[in-house]
Specification:
With 551 residues, the chain is α/β, with parallel strands linked by helices. The protein contains 20 helices and 16 strands. The strands form 4 sheets. The chain has a 6-stranded mixed beta sheet, with helices on both faces. It is globular.
Length: 551
């Protein structure tokens, strides 16, 4: 039987296991565009549950499942994270008010989660995390008929989850072509395996998040490191050995150890390579000259480097401080929340009437809780949310049952241009429901072009793409590879602009200079200015060099 303490530790172990493997899971993403990273999203989602359970000291399994599900709902990020949270929400429903549970209870509860997950996705696709969850549940149900022991059933669930993962390439040709399994399915297997570690063996998978990953911990670690830097200069030299030199390299090593630390020395018949931390780099050079000519010299002031690193890190911390939204009473009739990354885009949405803009987008999916906070900070009875990214829509939809004092309407915009057009078509004279449909229809009339970089090596349409190549996408479909962002944009515009085009908006990102932005604008104006109004907007968005809106 599994009680609350066992289930708590199993969930924490599952969270640790996927966190350890998240980078490997991220690498399974086959599309070369920088994205929300499946492993990271799933890891952050279930880690929210692990943190929420840290202080729970009860023994009720139903309570543990409920605490975990609530935390995961609010912490869910990206489609894979949301689906994971839905699976655990159904799991919690199945274990409600149960002090202890057996294998039969576990399998039935997982089935509720699987059913909910399939219903939450508009077009369920086999060969994904859904397939892995479903087949695992079915195996658990069958195992429970034979033996209701919780370890036996959970082992069957894990085994079948891995079997299902192995066949995902057969169900999704794009996975087979890339030679990988589904990333979301792999993430779920990692969670289930981590949970099994505790359910079966009583061991929590070890995981300690690197302090370097958080700005706050960097500051405290940096303060300690100041005291640890005993010697100022990191000194590295390469000496070309003179054939007639009779001095022993080992004597040089012994000497270096008397004037510094972190001594590393490699030598052969031709060279001696030295690394040492010392207060007297000049002495190192002088000693090296006794053995031959200096072929390379590098001396760095570690204390100064560290001081600058702290200064830059504090600046970054200040710049990237998470925005907060104070609660506001729902007094006005309508209000808007949008998701966008970049100060220029934030200002643009503010100017279009959107009071609260949640920072996020491609590669930086906000959580359900982030969106919820912005909704509750919008002083309106009807709050219309514009996710502006296909990987954020599900997370936004999870806010609807969490809000009771105002109506939340999700207009499922998939791109920034769709969100802009949706806002421009809002009509304050009609109902919220009619507005939602009006805005959706308007958004569907917008074509979106994106110019970005390849985040990984890949192959599409028989063309090999190298990491770092400039790529362009038309309505989400990769169509162009180039070596120059402006050239890629012009090619993309030629494909997208038609005789019916009336408006073209070019939004340039944080990595594009004003000179290049103006050059791109001028080229578009020369080619299409006679048939369409063309606007240039500084968006400051990351990831995308250019966002092109064509209406």
């Amino acid at each position: 039987m599994i009680n609350g303490e066992i289930l708590k530790n199993a969930i924490i172990s599952g969270a640790h296991n996927i966190s350890v493997q998240k980078n490997h899971i991220n690498d399974l993403n086959i599309f070369p565009v920088p994205d929300g990273d499946t492993g990271t999203n799933m890891s952050m989602t279930i880690m929210a549950a692990a943190k929420a359970l840290e202080d729970y000291d009860g023994t009720n399994a139903g309570e543990v499942a409920d605490i975990a599900a609530r935390a995961m709902l609010r912490g869910a990020r990206g489609n894979s994270g949301v689906i994971t949270s839905i699976l655990f929400r159904g799991f919690a429903q199945g274990l409600k008010e149960m002090e202890e549970v057996n294998g039969k209870n576990i399998a039935a509860a997982l089935g509720i989660g699987v059913d909910s997950a399939y219903k939450a996705v508009a077009k369920p696709t086999e060969g994904t995390i859904l397939t892995v969850a479903r087949m695992a549940y079915e195996a658990g149900l069958e195992a429970a008929r034979e033996n209701s022991d919780s370890v036996y059933v959970w082992q069957a669930i894990v085994n079948k989850a891995n079997d299902a993962l192995a066949i995902t390439p057969e169900l999704l040709p794009v996975l087979k072509k890339a030679g990988v399994v589904d990333a979301g399915g792999k993430g779920l297997c990692s969670i289930f395996e981590g949970m099994l570690c505790f359910i079966k063996d009583g061991e929590i998978v070890e995981y300690e998040e690197s302090q370097a990953l958080t700005l706050e911990s960097f500051d405290s670690a940096a303060a300690e490191f100041d005291d640890d830097i005993e010697f100022t200069y990191c000194t590295e030299i390469i000496v070309g050995r003179e054939p007639e030199c009779e001095l022993e390299p080992d004597d040089l090593r012994t000497f270096l150890q008397t004037i510094g630390d972190c001594v590393v020395m490699v030598n052969d018949e031709e060279i001696i390579k030295i690394h040492v931390h010392t207060e007297t780099p000049n002495v190192v050079l002088e000693k090296g000259l006794l053995y031959g000519q200096l072929l390379a010299v590098k001396v760095e002031n570690m204390k100064e480097q560290h001081k600058n690193a702290k200064k830059n890190n504090k600046s970054t911390k200040k710049k990237k401080k998470k925005e907060t939204f104070a609660f506001a009473e729902p007094e006005e009739q309508f209000g808007f929340v949008a998701v966008a990354a970049g100060e220029g885009l934030k200002t643009l949405f503010n100017d279009l009437g959107c009071l609260n803009v949640v920072s996020g987008g491609q590669s930086m999916n906000p959580s359900t809780d982030d969106i919820l906070e912005a909704i509750l900070g919008t002083p309106a009875k009807n709050v219309i949310v514009l996710p502006n990214n296909k990987n954020i829509i599900l997370a936004a939809e999870q806010t609807i049952p969490l809000v009771t004092d105002r109506k939340v309407i999700i207009v499922p915009t998939r791109t920034i241009p769709q969100g802009m057009t949706a806002l421009l078509n809002f009509d304050p004279e009609i109902s919220a429901e009619s507005n939602a449909q009006l805005m959706i229809d308007a958004a569907h009339g917008v074509d979106t072009g994106l110019v970005t970089f390849a985040a990984r090596n890949s192959e599409f349409g028989g063309k090999k793409i190298k990491e770092g190549d400039i790529i362009a996408l038309e309505n989400g479909k990769l169509t162009i590879t180039e070596k120059n962002a402006v050239k890629a944009l012009v090619k993309l515009a030629k494909d997208m602009v038609s005789r019916d085009t009336s408006f073209i908006t070019l939004i340039y990102g944080e990595d594009v200079s004003e000179e290049d932005a103006n050059k791109a604008y001028e080229e578009l104006r020369d080619k299409f200015g006679s048939r369409a109004d063309i606007s240039l907007v500084k968006g400051d968005q990351p990831v995308y060099y250019f966002i092109l809106s064509v209406e």
